[in-house]
Automatic annotation (TrEMBL):
Protein name per Swiss-Prot or TrEMBL: TraB domain-containing protein
InterPro entries: TraB/PrgY/GumN_fam, TraB_PrgY-like
Region entry Disordered, spans: 1-27
Ranges of Acidic residues composition bias in the record: 1-19
């Protein structure tokens, strides 16, 4: 698998699926390709009857993008995705994932549930090492939110993406693209956009999330009117967070969907023909993608991460000093022997190593 965020996931060989037609003996490779192309064309519905969650977008070249708006913990969203892909037999399927989250495509529900619930010191250290102190802790807090929803509903996130991956593998010549901005960029830009007070309020709310969630609540997330109302409430609370986590990713997803909708080459003469694309994204991104569809987009602007401010530098060094002070006090209180034992602990050594790392 390629490592850039627009990477194409290796699709399943269509000839391995038992729903594919039997080939006459003696066909050459080029003839077999043409037969499969014709089979897909016959299966593709010209005017499909699709779920209400699907939005149809077009390009000047005549390509069509069927945008499936989903709720991330919804069984009915999985059915919407399967129905759409089977009906339109796309050239490309694009999902709201980046390479940092692609592993969820091949993990079973049981493993995903365990991963979401099993938050330990090692995961915290790894998140901080990869994303920095604030972004790493925010990632852990959001994982806790995911674990809370998973526990309430008894299902793991990403089911609609796994369904899209499975169904794309059954369509001849269908490519599978990762369409989302890399999650470390999103986290870092989100943290940088919040004030210290907003960071504290957000962290507090995530730490003490305990409201019950039902499957009916999840299905309401597929209703555009209700979702837009919820978004408006969030914008009032954390406008900068909405900008980085929702609006900027709307732009990025629009860019990848338009790129996926470039014309494709049809056998036998490699003639350029309009593409058919299925995009699978959270319903909250659908209005933004529609608004951005015909606009000029500046992707470089939303991929940069600003250097830490002077205040952030001071705060980080205060935190490091406080950690050193606490360790020193622990050594003083516990005595030399206990202090040496404390400093020998792997978790403490890792924390010390992180605090020694100079700011970039």
């Amino acid at each position: 698998m390629e490592q850039d965020n627009n990477s194409e996931v290796d699709s399943v060989d269509p000839t391995e699926d038992d729903t594919q037609p039997a080939f006459p003996l003696g066909l050459s490779d080029s003839e077999a390709v043409e037969v499969l192309w014709q089979v897909r064309a016959q299966r593709r519905q010209a005017d499909p009857d699709l779920p209400d969650t699907v939005t149809r977008l077009t390009t000047p070249e005549g390509s069509i993008v069927y945008l499936v708006g989903t709720a991330h913990f919804s069984d009915s969203s999985k059915k919407d995705v399967a129905t759409t892909i089977r009906a339109v037999q796309p050239d490309v399927v694009v999902v709201e994932l980046c390479q940092y989250r692609v592993s969820m495509l091949k993990m079973d529900e049981k493993t995903l549930l365990k991963e979401a619930k099993d938050i330990n010191l090692e995961k915290v250290q790894q998140a901080i090492k990869q994303n920095g102190m604030m972004s790493g802790l925010m990632q852990i807090l959001l994982l806790k939110v995911s674990a809370h929803i998973t526990e309430q509903l008894g299902m793991a996130p990403g089911g609609e993406f796994r369904e899209a991956f499975k169904e794309a593998g059954k369509v001849p010549f269908c490519k599978f693209h990762l369409g989302d901005r890399p999650i470390p960029v999103t986290f870092k830009r989100a943290i940088a956009a919040l004030s210290l007070w907003q960071k504290a309020r957000l962290a507090w709310g995530l730490c003490f999330l305990s409201d019950p969630i039902s499957k009916e609540d999840v299905e309401k997330c597929k209703q555009k009117d209700l979702l837009e109302q919820t978004m408006s409430e969030m914008i009032g609370e954390f406008p900068a967070l909405h900008q980085t986590i929702v609006a900027e990713r709307d732009i990025y997803l629009t860019h990848t969907l338009r790129h996926a909708a470039n014309c494709v080459e049809a056998p036998p003469n490699a003639e350029k023909v309009p593409a058919v694309v299925v995009g699978v994204v959270g319903m909250g991104h659908v209005p933004g993608i529609e608004r951005n569809w015909d606009k000029e987009l500046n992707i470089h602007e939303i991929m940069s991460v600003a250097p830490p401010s002077r205040f952030g530098w001071v705060l980080r060094n205060v935190f490091k000093g406080a950690m050193w002070g606490l360790l020193g006090y622990a050594c003083f209180r516990a005595g030399k022997g206990m202090g040496r034992a404390l400093l020998a602990l792997p978790a403490v050594q890792s924390l010390l190593e992180n605090t020694r790392t100079p700011a970039v």
